[in-house]
Design a protein that fits this description.
Layout (H helix, E strand, L loop, with lengths): L7 H4 L3 H16 L7 H4 L10 H10 L3 H34 L2 H26 L7 H18 L1
Length: 152
Amino acid sequence: MAESSNSPADSSPSFFRGHWEGWKGYWGEKFAFLDNYSKFVKREKPIPSWSDSDVEEFIASESVHGPTLKTAREAVKFAATGSIIGAISTAGIAWKYSRSPHGAALSFGAGAVFGWTFGQEIANHWLQLYRLDTMVAQVKFMDWWVNKTESQ
């Protein structure tokens, strides 16, 4: 006897399809914060660039999110300093012990990434960024900037 094609086994997804859908849902939850930026990234007309004076104007005009944005901008200085220190020190050590240009270049890149990460962690504790929602402040600035440029 031939089985009918309307059996319950045919309507359920395959093992791999079900597994893929599960992982897709899992990572979709983990990266849901990217939806906050989709209205700025997926635009037909690009957002015009802004200057430091525009950011300072937002910081002065916004009493809640302005100080948070200012603190987040200060944290970038910590990260950049850490990146420079990490890049130069690891590349110097690699060059001292190996005299290999490609090894020093790879160490320079890796040191920059590691230094940036350590600088962000230092800024997180030093400036107590863990108490602030810096992403909301950045999104509010982008909303403010888009509304300001579109109204002109």
